Amino acid sequence: QVQLVVPMAVVFGPGAVPGDLPRPLPFRDVQEMEISVNLRTSVTARYEMRYRSTTAQEEAALAAGTAREADAALYPLQDTTLGSLTIYVVPETSSLLPQGINVYVGTHRSALVRAGGSLAALQARLREVTQVMSFTASSIAAALSDRVPDGQLSPDARRNLKSSLGYEITFSLLNPDPKSHTVDWDIEGAVNRYVKPVLDKLSLVANFSVDSQILYYAVLGVTPRYDKESSSFLLSAHSLPHVINPVEARLGSSAASLYPVLNFLLYVPERSHSPLYIQDKDGAPVSTNAFHSPRWGGIMVYNVEAPASPQASLPLHVDVDMARVMEVFLAQLRLLFGLSREEVPPEFLLESPGNEGLADWELDHLLWAHTVENIATVSTTLTSLAQLLDKIGNIVIKDDVASEVYRAVASVQSAVTELSLGHLHAAFQASKEAVTSSERAFFDPSLLHLLYFPDDQKFAIYIPLFLPMAVPILLSLAKIVRETRLRKKEPTKMD
Amino acid sequence: MAAAVPGASRARAAAALLLLLGCCGAALPGGLQDQAEQFFRSGHTNNWAVLVCTSRFWFNYRHVANTLSVYRSVKRLGIPDSHIVLMLADDMACNPRNPKPATVFSHKNMELNVYGDDVEVDYRSYEVTVENFLRVLTGRIPPSTPRSKRLLSDDRSNILIYMTGHGGNGFLKFQDSEEITNVELADAFEQMWQKRRYNELLFIIDTCQGASMYERFYSPNIMALASSQVGEDSLSHQPDLGIGVHLMDRYTFYVLEFLEEIHPASQTNMNDLFQVCPKSLCVSTPGHRTDLFRREPRNVLITDFFGSVRKVEITTETLSLRRDVAALQSE
């Protein structure tokens, strides 16, 4: 039913054209992949590939020294619509890609791939690239997680943030020991400098609002263990789940908005529990000293160095290194959205996105998953609304509910059409409108059906009213019928 | 006789607690692996609780004490106030007939004040109606309702719903003026399932003929417990002569004794909760329904519903940021 179209351009550099092309360049080819979610739902992925050779400008760009420079030079020459991919094929012996690396993925929507000799080998590599850069069967299945039969998806796969129109991000500084530490954090500057670029890039996906707060005397729920060997305090991995709860009660959230809240907590341990390190399952200390919880947020422990002289006056002044903190928090934000770089094949080299936080193709990843999720949500919502209204015949549908339903149907149809044409941006916007309209229609306060009358209650109410009235009526009707029958008989008797 | 029974059961509870701690200590290393697997079997990421007391008036003190005791246990095990929707008539603590104002006790001799000073009642007094209850469950709330009065659950939420009050065969009385039938409740749960507003739901009801309320459920992933079967009455536990009313109902009293032994890292499962309050203690026969639930009750931890144990992952990736970036002007 839903077709995801990825427009791809495969550009062959000089000396990289494989010998066994079916037709001379340029030509088009289409590859389809079926992602079957359950017996009735399946999504078709359609890769529309345009094979061509490089233009003179592109050749000049590919003659650069490193892959990064080549990618930067090629960027102005590409088609950069959302959802599209451009893949440049370089010769097998090219020195543009380091030794052992076959694919270089830039921060925009392009990749440099080493030719594989034959067209089939190249296509295998291209398939891997599209899996990384657009969507995989499992990412689509995770977006449609409520339609997957139980047991087929591992519970881990359903833990990314759900697609929503907005998210609230709250940064909290927890200082359990204000007598020992006076902690200064320039959160406003850090948000403007590091967080805003990332959120601006993500603004296509949703609206973000950022708050911050400082909590004093907020302790973690677990007492850390003292380790003599490293003379530090350790929090083991299995005690981490219990850390969050006592703090959560004090975190608070904005009373007005209904968007999901992501909490990022920075914890400065007490003087008596410093330094505090987090251990992973194998007992090794974690380099980031941070952990995160799906759909909730993340916590980072910030250790303050012991004062040089033991007689230093308390409280110590602490200036938090916001860059280091934001590196961890923004990485956690990416992981909460499901943008992980862990499952990439070893011969791939991914360019780091730098201060923007995520690459363009990672944004596409999110948009593909969210668009599919939105379309599925709208169809489920409208179907169940229709079933509800079928079942309970006497609910009154207001005009604005009806118009929202019509708008939702029109939007979701346009979203599916745009997806089949390869316009990811338009499809995503249409799917967002569809979700807004369908949620407004489904959750309209007027659709509450309260009056349920079981049959025995109906009998109990109506029988005492009508039975006493009905008895004399029926009796007199019987009497009338008897009299008419008698009168009809008499003329024949009187003769 | 009523006084002797709680004393003996408390001693038994203390012995059971010691034994439990001993077992926990011994089983901890091997239990870690199991604990990790248990986590990934339930698949929920957050917990909600909807606690409803459907009675008002002074002589229904025990229903308010029931609900507040469950509220305290749920908070102690980790669910924050922002994730609890508490609906009470709330006319006990400041009732002119209350000899100890601003308190609600759950144990005889005024041992435990369950009202405390951090109770957060979301729907109080005349706001506890069938309509508001169904609106909370289905989410069809007027847009002006504040966040604390909403059930903002998603498809990965485990929800605990506890109801107490006066009930009959197939209905539950709300505030002495209206009633909710088991069909309406089942339909409300189906609406929640259609919109995926829960991952798993635990429904506990402590009223007379409570089992009739869960007979009509037909949505998946619901487990239900009731204090009495159809045709039986649920009885109250103990009167306090100083306050002059019965303080709690039997079923909830023994459930609470059971919950007092649970801590956030407990591995106790639902089968133990089903055994709470046998007929000898409760006089009525508690019932439960698990046919709609996907997992086996022995794999379901008590803390899956009563506590809020979150799944965590160690953060191993970082971003690399350039330090010399100029700050963007905020609008």
| First-residue to last-residue Cα separation of chain A | 86 Å
Strand content of chain B: 15-25%
Described by the principal axes of the CA atoms, the overall outline of chain B is globular
Number of strands of chain A: 17
Using the CA coordinates, give the radius of gyration of chain A: 33 Å
**The CATH topology of chain B, please?**
Rossmann fold
Family (chain B): Belongs to the peptidase C13 family.
Protein name (chain B): GPI-anchor transamidase
Pfam families (chain B): Peptidase_C13
Signal peptide (chain B): 1-26
Search tags:
heterodimer, A: alpha/beta, 4 domains, seven-stranded mixed beta sheet, five-stranded mixed beta sheet, flat, B: about 325 residues, Rossmann fold, three-stranded antiparallel beta sheet, 8 helices, transmembrane (chain A), membrane (chain A), GPI-anchor biosynthesis (chain A), endoplasmic reticulum (chain A)
Give the topology.
The complex is a heterodimer of chains A (495) and B (331).
Chain A: E1 2-12, E2 27-36, E3 42-53, H1 56-62, H2 67-74, E4 85-90, E5 103-105, E6 110-114, H3 119-133, H4 137-143, E7 166-175, E8 181-184, H5 187-202, E9 207-216, E10 225-227, E11 232-235, H6 244-251, E12 261-267, E13 276-278, E14 290-293, E15 297-301, E16 316-319, H7 322-337, E17 348-350, H8 360-391, H9 399-421, H10 424-442, H11 455-493
Parallel strand pairs in A: 1-3, 1-4, 4-6, 5-17, 7-9, 7-12, 8-16, 11-13, 12-15
Antiparallel strand pairs in A: 2-3, 5-6, 10-11, 14-15
Chain B: H1 4-42, E1 46-53, H2 61-76, E2 84-88, E3 123-124, H3 130-138, E4 157-164, E5 167-168, E6 171-174, E7 178-181, H4 182-194, E8 200-206, E9 222-226, H5 250-260, H6 270-274, H7 279-282, E10 287-289, H8 303-306, E11 313-314
Parallel strand pairs in B: 1-2, 1-4, 2-3, 4-8, 8-9
Antiparallel strand pairs in B: 5-6, 6-7, 9-10
